[in-house]
Write a structure and sequence with these properties.
mainly alpha; Arc Repressor Mutant, subunit A; Tetracycline Repressor, domain 2; 10 helices; globular
């Protein structure tokens, strides 16, 4: 078993987040436990509490890394794509949910044990991701930034709902079109 002095506080944070993501990728969110993370790190559970304060803060750091990775993937893709940015981002949402289902699920299934406001550093990561969508929808919102912000959230909710139904197999039950067909229809109607 390693000692805290073997790594700096920042190294321990990075190690804990990296091992947490590996376990989520391997076992899903339901297979996630502080004891399992500590064991994978080679440390005790107490180390996680020492570094993060509580499990909610630890989970926020993992989700923050997911948001950072997702944002970077979308940002790089936007620079390369010839597609309409809004359609690129919608497809990027679907692709991320499919390719990283367990990480995507963790973002939306994790609930803090104590209902407290999200820290500013975490809120900024979510805001930065939404800013990509706001910028893409701005031309469809008559250049009105306030409207673009609301439109971005409405479209996200619709696309998220389609993804949830698709990935759970519920779209097939009702004989709905493919995910991409539904999302493009939503975008067509919203931007018309």
């Amino acid at each position: 078993m390693a000692r805290r002095s073997d790594h700096s506080r920042e190294e321990l944070k990075d190690l804990a987040v990296r091992k947490g993501l590996e376990i989520i990728d391997k076992n899903g969110f339901s297979g996630f436990s502080a004891r399992g993370i500590a064991k994978a790190m080679g440390y005790t559970v107490g180390t996680l509490y020492h570094v993060f304060g509580d499990l909610d803060q630890y989970m926020l750091h993992i989700n923050a890394q997911i948001l950072d990775d997702w944002h970077e993937e979308l940002r790089r893709g936007l620079k390369r794509t010839k597609k309409d940015p809004l359609r690129y981002l919608a497809q990027g949402y679907i692709d991320f949910a499919r390719a990283h289902y367990d990480r995507w699920t963790m973002l939306f299934e994790f609930k803090m044990a104590k209902p407290t406001p999200l820290p500013d550093w975490y809120t900024e990561k979510m805001t930065r991701l939404f800013r990509l969508v706001e910028n893409a929808i701005l031309p469809h919102s008559d250049g009105d930034l306030r409207k673009a912000r609301q439109d971005a959230k409405v479209l996200w909710a619709g696309i998220h709902g389609i993804c949830v139904l698709s990935l759970s197999g519920k779209l097939d039950i009702v004989g709905a079109e493919k995910t991409e067909v539904l999302v493009n229809s939503l975008l067509d109607k919203y931007t018309a």
